Amino acid sequence: MVNKGNERFIEVAKDIELGYDVYRSLLQYMDDGEIGAYFENVRKPPRRYYIRVNTLKISSDELAKRFRDKGLVAYRDEVLEEALWFPTEGPNRVESSAKYIVADKYAAESVYLGSNLYGPGVLYMPSNINAGDEVNVISPNGEIVALGIARVDSSTFRKGFRGIVVEVIKSVYRLPKLRDLDEWRFGLFYEQSLPAQWVGRLIDPGPGEFIVDMCSAPGGKATHVAQLSGNRATVLAVDRSWAKVRQVEYNATRLGVRLQTYIEDSRFLPNNHPELTGNVDKVLIDPPCSDAGVRPKLHYRLTMRDVVNYVNYQRQFIKAAHALLKPGGVLVYSTCTLPPMENEENVKWAIELGFNVEYVNIPAGQRAFDGLSRRFHPHIQDTPGFFMAKLTKVK
Fold first, then answer.
1. pTM for the whole thing?
2. Is 289 a catalytic residue?
3. List of domains in the chain
């Protein structure tokens, strides 16, 4: 146990710390060894890197063939016909260099997987870096994530350079650079984890249904729902800023799916759009959460205050969804995090609000701690940590 200020933390894996109260709450559902295994696996990427085939434009078999023609081997998922996956390469030993550049947390985690380092992701660049230098990229906690070649010198970077600062030549893990392919530009696929693809299947969109995605950016689930409906459902994708909605619209255009979009805090949809109240067939909520299942994480800290704040925020979306839905309407609620307070306990709260919870019958993941919802665990299914529940409005 580590004391930091007034907070006590448990280090459950290297550079991953949970507040003592968070850790104690998890012990009601998992033993100490399982918590450690969960977060040890969070530190590295899944062995399978998934994409979703845009079956409106191409079949999975045809896209896999196109990848093979380019020297990339993609495999069909055992169950989901629109899911293909690539093997993740690594871990690789990355040599030390005399010079280094520090990336911020999110950039470091991308570089860890083989991405180049761009200007906005640089946290610190020493003044002795010249273009052409061999450099290590390191994370804020000092972990070497890649070896590469500096493409600009320090003085150019300090003028606000936003392009490639380090071209990565070797990283701890490596994924195929799929966004360089014509198949990506033509909208033949979308990069999406396996659990997230199951959310679209759980929505099960039908022709003519009106479906709202309340926290839509960057649009993976909304575009999947539109795809599964054959563009025959009306899908309204909502997010709170123009930048977020622009992401959704860009992906919808690239994929060739039809969405309606609102720039709106969707917690206030029932008040701001009374015409929607009681008229929605299905709602999808994947709200902001504590992200404890997102992989890979090189360092992470979670306090009970964080969890409680997320829970209070998430319940506002659930309450708005209840107002939007028709009687008998369906809510699919999902998160990419572990704490049951943000998951099973939110489902219990939704039941008190006027929902019934349905058994999630999908041949993947495992039963959640409530026995009805579904979870994916990094140390068991080797996916991101994920939770999903299906609820029906009864009053």
1. 0.95
2. no
3. 48-88+176-185 (3.30.70.1170), 100-171 (2.30.130.10), 194-294+301-393 (3.40.50.150)
